[in-house]
Amino acid sequence: MVVKAEAPALVHKSDVGAVKVDLRNADDLARAVDEIDVSLSAADYKASGYLIQEMVSGGVETIYGISSYPQFGPLLMFGLGGRYVEVLGDVRFGVTPLEPAEAEAMVKGIRGFQLLEGVRGEPGADIDFLVEMLLRIAQLAQRHPQIQELDVNPFLAAPTAAGSKALDVRIRVDAEQKSNA
User: Fold this and answer.
1) SS3 per residue for the chain
2) Maximum Cα–Cα distance for the chain, whole Å?
3) I need a surface site. Which of 66, 71, 104, 135 has the fewest CB within 10 A?
4) pLDDT tens digit sequence for 95-147
5) Cα 13–Cα 75–Cα 134 angle in degrees, nearest 5
6) Which one, of 10, 67, 62, 68, lies nearest residue 39 by Cα?
């Protein structure tokens, strides 16, 4: 399993040692929580809770995002994700309404698209599903303008839709905005 600390204003959990992976039993979990608490304290955070998740592997870490701007509405993002998203900077942007061809161009337009196709014997990701996810996120952004930011990172892109998973999600809403649904 994986354990992640939750704390107000904590965005990049791995930067402060707030994520522990490949835990196999209750002793591993207890030790990991203690280590996380020490790391958080050193970084001036206090855990408000812990999220325990299934340990998953395989696939390609991608990112989906929404950032809303008053001037032109929601800006959508797709790219290679995970811990290295800022380092790689391999993302593409689009605006709503998003047409299927535009979503496909965003997914296929990243420099690392070959990773999603599969390299060196690794299976590729379900590209049609990644495009569908982007279209659904665009629809979500249009219907719910109160969503100011959405960050699905990493989203594990697997060979099948059923095997793909959102591993971490952060959403910021503006309660004053009204839904268009």
Assistant:
1) CEEEEECCCCCCHHHHCCEECCCCCHHHHHHHHHHHHHHHHHCCCCCCEEEEECCCCCCEEEEEEEEEECCCEEEEEEEECHHHHHHHCCEEEEECCCCHHHHHHHHHCCCCHHHHHCCCCCCCCCHHHHHHHHHHHHHHHHHCCCEEEEEEEEEEECCCCCCCEECCEEEEECCCCCCCC
2) 51
3) 71
4) 999 999 999 999 999 999 999 999 999 999 999 999 999 999 999 999 999 99
5) 80
6) 10
CA distance 137 to 135: 5
Q: Which amino acid is at 103?
A: A
Instruction: Report the pLDDT value the prediction gives residue 133, as an integer from 0 to 100.
Output: 98
Rounded Cα distance between 134 and 13, Å, is 25
Residue 142: exposed, middle, or buried by beta-carbon count in 10 A (0-12, 13-18, 19+)?
Answer: middle
The answer to whether 96 touches 135, Cβ cutoff 8 Å, is: no
> The dihedral of CA 111, 113, 121, 133: what is its sign?
positive
What is the identity of the amino acid at 65? Answer: G
The pTM assigned to this predicted structure is: 0.85
